[in-house]
Amino acid sequence: MLRSNVIRACVIGCLAVGFAFAGLAAASTAAGAESIPATGGEFVPVTAVRLVDSSLGVGWSGKLQPDATRSVTATGLAGFPTAGVLAVMLHIITAHSASTGVNANGNVWAWPAGSARPQYANLANPPLGSTADNTAIVRIGTAGQISFYNGAGGTAVDVQVDVEGYVTSDSTSADGAAFAPLQPRRIVDTADGTGGRSTPLTSTSAWTFHALGAGGIPATGVSAVALNLGAQRTSTQCWVQVQPTGTSASNASYPRVNTYANYTAQELAVVAPDSSGNITFSTNCASTDVYVDVEGYYLIPTDESSGDIYVPITTPTRVIDTRRNIGITGKMTAGRVVSGAHAVTVAGVGEVPSDADAVALNVGAINADKRGYNTVWTDGMTRPARISTINIDPRVNQNNLVFVQTGARGKIDVADPSAIATQSNDLYLDVQGYFYRPASGVAFATPQYFPNVIGDTFYNTVGPAGDILATANDTRGVNDSCLRSGKDIAILSVRGADPARLTVSTVNCMKSYGPRAGGPSTPDGCSWKTGGITRVGRVIYLAVARQLKSCSDGKQTHGLQPSFDASIIKSVDGGKTWTNPWGLTARDGAAPPWEGTLGRYKAMFPGQSFSAPFFIQYGPGNTQTVDGADKYLYSVSNDGIQVQRELPASGAGAAEPGPASERLAVLSRPGWWRRRHMDEFGRRRHASTAGEEQPQPAGDPVRSGIEEVRVDHVLVHPGGE
User: DSSP state, 689?
Assistant: First the structure.
């Protein structure tokens, strides 16, 4: 693995002519440096770490007051990396300690620090003298922090937060686990003997259950199980905990649900069975019945063949709110079933793609007049028996995070099976994320074409928003968006969780670099071309240079068309605005100014000639976490007029339809890169300064495609970011 602390990014010119220029003193990537937001990732369960306990001064000291926000750092805790974390799984508890007065009002939010607070909360505050809890999977924000807010109309509450696992980002070296969702099925209920126990759980003894093989969970190949854990029929305030068999029941670092007298509580619990597939339940309740509904399981980290990654969405989407007739009109009432033509769409809504396998729903029940429960399941499937997705109680507003499959129609059904005929409640559901299975086996030979993206497309990098930022030359932009203002250079954005289903948009037409193809209308008769593009932290650097065969006489070598008079510009907003080396910042790209007295454009590296300047990348954003840095390798280019001419007109290998030479093509390769080191890839092709190719290791299935390289100079520009 590359670990250089001297130069983390430089620009090199290669391919026979080989000048190198550039560089910048890259920002440090030590602990606390910003990691790349990724589209989605896998789950890594950990022994829970206490992030916040306001009553003990952990995270912050004192109750969370109404209309107050607190932010805490969630990365770098014991067992957690400082980088490579996309989101964290949090168990959030709010406590209202007063024994007299009124119930705690309001709600508590958790969201990425540095971003706008979402419209919908994660947890309703608890009843008088008690606690409320819920699980949330929250994307990491600025500086690795999570923010918490207590509503303006709320009551001051103590807050306790445990981190129970994290979702990997593309820059992590950790091996996470992919998820396999299941239809909910009850596998334990001590009230009726389901699962093998027919008596309540007590504080005097724990109980062990064999989880693997139960309720659709495979007997092997499972690293953790996702359960809806419920406790009911208690006489005091107490808790029920689930953990790997063989671990200490007194250890509070495992998933638990808090409950109180004559109340039914539930909580999402992700727990890793022991080596025999067993989990253990324990409690401090004098007596309580326990039920468990399985929602899915996580594969072992080495098995990615049949699992989903998790994508925490930026803005939670409310798909049901009976108070406002969203999704369902009117309250849920005993015996009511919402399905068929009235089923509620969750796939293809908001940020959720139409073919998501499952969604993470924050389910809330409010305004109940009797006790009962509601069930949520996949439309088109038989309603699961006795599944209490959310329990109903007039004394409290309930919340529960659940994982629900979307099914063939991308919809969910809802029912109120409550036994009391007059029972009713309002219900709301917020989509907080989704599970998605990227396409596998996408080969380099099968690119995705974009006929509506015209231009010569060259270098690319991972942008600060997790997209691919690509440069384009002699371009009209996407859908001719730069036809009028476009010119020599444009910046494009490629997005999507699946490399076989990407979307492309124009970020900036870079008007100051026009006109398209340069030529007689420019002072020197040349045109602008981009070289490399890279990102350090949130700063994007782009190499630009003059180039045109007709104006590069005397600078050519072996008939090539070199670039010259190069500079590096930078952007801190994802390519929308650029700053040149002389301090000009503009949305039009801030092209270097023309120096009339010198007869050329101003340049950081005047007069030097090179073929293809590019930045050496040490992992996305120069984070240097190279192994596991990407789930996919991307190559962004145009398909090339010469290639089109050489392809047969029909039959095997026929050219794709569309413009003959200038379509954008995105090629990707999944999987195999993820657990290989950059230095392993480098050893496949070594090139000396004389351009002599070194022997390739025997049996190596991958060729870099670089046949011969000669680097004559490496110049590092002083200063920089």
Answer: T
Range list of β-strands (E), 153-262: 158-168, 179-189, 207-210, 222-232, 238-244, 256-259
Cα(326)–Cα(139) distance, integer angstroms:
26
CA 153 to chain centre: 32
Q: What is the pLDDT of residue 486?
A: 54
Residue 277 near residue 221 (C-beta atoms within 8 A): no
Q: Is residue 470 part of a domain?
A: yes
With cut-offs at 50, 70 and 90, classify the pLDDT of residue 494: confident
Alpha carbon 227 to chain centroid, angstroms: 23
> Strand, helix or coil at 27?
coil
Q: CA-CA distance, 424 to 368, in Å (whole number)?
A: 6
Instruction: Give the residue-averaged pLDDT of 403-428.
Output: 95
Let me know if residue 499 belongs to a domain. yes
Clarify whether residues 424 and 470 are in a common domain.
no
Tokens of 247: 């671990």
CA dist., res. 319 & res. 668, Å (int): 34
- Residue for token pair 């974009």: 450
Phi, psi of 126 (to 5 degrees): -85, 170
Give the Å distances, CA to CA, from 636 to 335, 448, 639.
55, 10, 9
Contact, 88 vs 137, CB < 8 A? yes
Q: Does the reported pTM lie above 0.90?
A: no
My answer on whether 506 and 647 are in the same domain is yes
Asked if the structure places residue 426 within a domain, the reply is yes
Is residue 46 a contact partner of residue 165, using CB atoms and an 8 Å limit?
yes
At residue 619, the pLDDT reads 43
CATH of the domain at 371: 2.60.120
The candidate with the shortest Cα–Cα distance to 225, out of 476, 366, 43, is 43
Task: State the Cα–Cα distance between residues 181 and 378, nearest whole angstrom.
Answer: 11
Sign of CA dihedral 700, 702, 707, 713: negative
The sign of the dihedral angle between the CA atoms of 315, 321, 323, 324 is positive
Q: For residue 125, is pLDDT > 80?
A: no
Cβ contacts of 522 within 8 Å, gap of 6 or more = 515
User: Which residue in 418, 296, 404 sits closest to 352, CA to CA?
Assistant: 404
Say yes or no: 344 and 266 in one domain. no
Task: Looking at the structure, tell me whether residues 600 and 491 fall in a common domain.
Answer: yes
User: How many domains would you assign to the chain?
Assistant: 3
Q: Which of 299, 334, 365 is the last residue of a domain?
A: 299
- Residue 283 CB neighbours (<10 A): 26
SS3 state at 95: strand
Burial label, 31 (beta-carbon count in 10 A; 0-12, 13-18, 19+): exposed
Whole-number pLDDT of residue 596:
87
Residue 372, both tokens: 């009962």
Cβ atoms of 513 and 489 closer than 8 Å: yes
| Same-domain check for residues 593 and 622 | yes
User: Are 494 and 527 in the same domain?
Assistant: yes
Say if residues 269 and 197 touch (Cβ distance below 8 Å).
no
Looking at the fold, whether 265 and 388 belong to one and the same domain comes out as no
Residue numbers of the domain that contains 531: 440-684
The tokens describing 234, both together, are 């208690």
Phi, psi of 593 (to 5 degrees): -75, 155
Q: How far is CA 709 from CA 494, 544, 658, 669, in A?
A: 29, 22, 34, 24
Q: Are 132 and 92 in contact (CB under 8 A)?
A: no
Instruction: Choose one of 299, 318, 334: the last residue of a domain.
Output: 299
User: For the chain, how big is the Rg over CA atoms in Å?
Assistant: 29
Compute the C-alpha angle 541/547/552, nearest 5°: 140
Q: From CA 655, how far away is CA 675, in angstroms rounded?
A: 34
In a domain, 343, yes or no: yes
